[in-house]
Design goal:
The complex is a heterodimer of chains A (about 400) and B (about 325).
Chain A lengths: L1 H26 L6 E8 L6 H20 L7 E8 L4 H13 L5 E3 L4 H14 L3 E3 L19 E3 L4 H15 L4 E7 L3 H17 L2 E8 L7 H10 L3 E3 L4 H13 L6 E3 L7 H6 L7 E5 L8 H14 L5 H20 L4 H9 L4 E3 L2 E5 L5 E3 L1 E7 L2 E8 L2
Parallel strand pairs in A: 1-2, 1-3, 3-4, 4-5, 6-7, 6-8, 8-9, 9-10
Antiparallel strand pairs in A: 10-14, 11-12, 12-13, 14-15
Helix pairs in contact in A: 2-11, 3-4, 5-6, 11-12
Chain B lengths: L5 H23 L4 H26 L7 H18 L4 H23 L4 H21 L18 H20 L1 H11 L1 H6 L4 H27 L9 H14 L4 H17 L7 H15 L9 E5 L5 E6 L2
Antiparallel strand pairs in B: 1-2
Helix pairs in contact in B: 1-6, 2-6, 2-9, 2-10, 2-11, 3-4, 3-5, 3-9, 4-9, 6-7, 6-9, 7-9, 10-11
The chains are: A alpha/beta (about 400), B mainly alpha (about 325).
Chain lengths: ~400, ~325
């Protein structure tokens, strides 16, 4: 009996595959009243928090756009799918969004690795793919230096943050000897480190110590003791808030009271819980946007977000929100919702005004965008300066 | 021993028929790139599951490091094809050989362990491979290896899958395979009967690693991009889930498991928030109501010995 059941089960599965496929392709004709945009995000898996924040931001933007009449007289339809934080699955989702759901553009994924997984189908079928947070340099440019025709990003590269912080340390703070504590399991962290070293030594600074840690570690006293021994004037920790919070706390306990520098990975209220307010002084980081910004658009966004979700927006929400408007802006300028026209319009973006700043797309499909430097004072981020490109 | 039995000829004809049918459907566009991509995922999962089944299902050695062999294969082929510009055949060969060499090196010390201890040792091996990948700048470290040429096509995929199934199912039925099964059933009894248990355990490990390396090469040369995180602990668990789901010790079970789980997964793509929840519930229910897996340790046979259609599930 059990044999019969199992064979039956298999037959049903196979049959449903066939039926499922045919019904999917039936919908493919698409109705012309909406413009379909695909969201390929990490909604589960180890970077689910980034993917969820970004897609919440995008959906909020699209909702607003639709309420105001949509673009080109049409409503935007969001088709959201979960790539489970896996790069092969991200490719699978891209393929499905393009061939089955007939989207005109794919937004996402959140991390550089998954974006590199997701982009081959977009290139192959000629559908634009835009990530708001894939900061690696080789996302939009392949290893031969050729620009990928259909891939864009709206965030600055890791290398840009590294260069910015190197200049900030050398010129603004006037410090010459830097130590680095890098998360060597993260492409993001290494990307910032490499460009920081290059720029800082070019300016005339010296790297006195280089140490490494891995994600999910909790005790950094050994590496921090080595760093203390090298006597640096400034410490660069390009990591994510989970570890950075503990690193700053332990560094201050060990008596390392030099300025600590970092990147947008510091942007989370949790860093305060992990490090405590006392330790979070003299900490500077570069970010896409400042919640303390008092410009009209940012305040309006913050209020709308708080009304909808009941909490303060993070940087990823803001970047997702901007990406939604960036897409709508490109469709508007393209004049029709075809992937090629949208691609051309995106490539020609000049001075798009978002809440994370004004951006133009350069010839490498990277944004030219202002970077904000924030200072933590007793754990509270204070707006320090905005560096225009 | 006659090779050209009716059964073998029918099987060969069926294998070739499926190959040309899919080739035809791809050329006329009925099988589009989305279905092709899913066929690649299913094919790679079949190779991984069948090869892990040899180690875990037939030889009874609980390994949690199968993704590490896949990683070695993926990186070996990635280096050969992307960095050194070699043809894909060289990539696949180097991938398979380096993975099986790693299987041999890790197998000799760890396969003297049993049960939980072996599981933990293989787990550690998986982490070591991942950390080596993360710290090796030549292959990009944590940034990963990008722009690997796409060489994996239907021909490579299909014949790799067929070769895996053919070699492993024949191995299991051979003198050596029976020695492996005897280790699973009772290691002490097997040893008392003169079976060199360490030798056969390592043999199963090396063969399993060989095919996992091929799967890694197919993966790297299809998805363009690999990074060490892809082949972490969770990937090993995913492969193990397919094996347990399909049935430990059933090759057809592993094939059925790989197909069913991929189909379920792609169906659930349309329910983004609940996707992994529903997937987990389905796995949970099946394991509660069918703890031995879909096929148990039985095999599904399409042809009986005389070559007629049987379509029955039969015991080995």
């Amino acid at each position: 009996m059990k044999k019969v059941v199992s064979v039956f089960l298999v037959l049903i599965m196979v049959a449903s595959l066939v039926v499922g496929c045919s019904s999917d392709s039936g919908q493919g004709s698409g109705d012309a009243d909406t413009i379909k945009v695909g969201l390929n995000y990490e909604l589960s898996g180890n970077v689910a928090s980034y993917g969820t924040d970004l897609s919440d931001g995008i959906e909020m933007a699209i909702e607003e756009i639709n309420k105001n009449g949509g673009v080109l007289g049409k409503q935007i339809e969001v088709i959201k799918m979960d790539n489970t934080s896996d790069s092969a699955e991200a490719a699978n989702i891209s393929e499905r969004l393009i061939t089955r759901e007939n989207v005109v553009t794919i937004l996402g994924p959140a991390t550089s690795g998954n974006t590199k997984g997701a982009l081959p189908p977009a290139e192959q079928h000629g559908v634009p793919l835009v990530s708001a947070s894939a900061t690696a340099d080789d996302v939009t440019v392949d290893s031969n230096g050729k620009v990928r025709d259909y891939v864009f990003k709206t965030c600055f590269s890791d290398s840009y943050q590294g260069v910015t912080m190197a200049n900030f340390a050398y010129n603004d703070l006037g410090l010459k000897n830097a130590a680095i504590l890098v998360e060597n399991t993260s492409d993001y962290s290494i990307g910032i480190q490499n460009s920081f070293i290059e720029e800082f030594t070019k300016l005339g600074g010296k790297i006195v110590a280089e140490e490494a840690y891995q994600s999910k570690e909790t005790d950094f006293r050994a590496v921090l003791t080595n760093i203390r021994a090298a006597n640096p004037e400034v410490l660069l920790v390009p990591g994510y808030y989970e570890e950075v919070g503990l690193i700053i706390k332990q560094a201050r306990e060990l008596g390392i009271d030099v300025p600590i520098l970092g990147g947008d990975g510091y942007d989370s209220p949790e860093i305060l819980d992990l490090a405590g307010a006392d330790a979070l002084n003299d900490v500077y980081y570069s970010n896409h946007y400042s919640p303390m910004d008092t410009s009209e658009e940012v305040v309006a966004f913050r209020n709308a977000f708080k009304e909808k979700f009941g909490r303060e927006p993070g940087a990823f929400h803001a970047m997702g929100y901007d990406l939604g408007y960036f897409f709508a802006d490109a469709v508007e300028r393209a004049g029709e919702a075809s992937p090629e026209k949208i691609r051309d319009a995106m490539a020609e973006t000049v001075d798009f005004k978002g809440i994370t700043g004004t951006l133009s797309i350069d010839e490498n499909h990277n944004p030219v965008k202002a970077v904000t430097i924030l200072e933590l004072v007793n754990g509270e981020p204070k707006f320090l300066k905005k560096l225009e490109p | 021993m006659k090779i050209l039995t009716k059964k073998n000829i029918y099987t060969l004809v069926l294998v070739l028929l499926i190959y040309f049918l899919v080739l035809l459907l791809s050329n006329v566009g009925i099988i589009d790139s989305y279905i092709q991509l899913n066929m690649v995922i299913v094919g790679i999962n079949i190779i991984l599951a069948v090869s892990l089944n040899l180690i875990t299902g037939f030889t009874g050695q609980f390994s949690l490091g199968h993704a590490a062999f896949m990683a070695i294969g993926a990186y070996a082929s990635g280096i050969m094809t992307a960095k050194l510009g070699q043809p894909f055949i060289v990539g696949v060969a180097v991938a398979a050989l380096s993975a099986s060499l790693a299987g041999l090196l890790i197998g000799i010390p760890t396969l003297r362990l049993r049960g939980d201890y072996l599981a933990i040792a293989t787990l550690g091996f998986g982490e070591i491979i991942k950390i080596i990948g993360l710290n090796n700048d030549y292959v990009g470290g944590a940034i990963g290896l990008n722009d690997i040429p796409r060489y994996t096509n239907w021909t490579w995929l299909y014949f790799s899958v067929i070769a895996t199934i053919f070699i492993i199912s024949n191995f299991v039925k051979s003198y050596h395979g029976r020695a492996c099964i005897s280790i699973r059933e009772d290691e002490i009894a097997a040893e008392a009967m003169g079976v060199n248990t360490t030798y056969y355990k390592i043999l199963a490990f090396v063969i399993g690693a060989f095919f996992a390396g091929i799967a890694g090469a197919l993966y790297a040369n299809y998805f363009y991009f690999i990074k060490p995180d892809t082949f972490g602990f969770m990937k090993s668990i995913d492969i193990l889930v397919i094996v347990v789901f399909g049935g430990m010790g059933s090759i057809t079970g592993s094939i059925v498991g790989a197909v069913i789980l991929s189909v379920i997964s792609s169906f659930l793509q349309g329910f983004p928030e609940l996707r992994m929840v529903i997937y987990a519930v389905i796995l949970f229910l099946i394991m509660v109501y069918r703890p031995q897996g879909v096929m148990g340790d039985k095999e599904f046979k399409l042809f009986n010995k005389e070559g007629g259609l049987s379509g029955n599930v039969s015991s080995k």
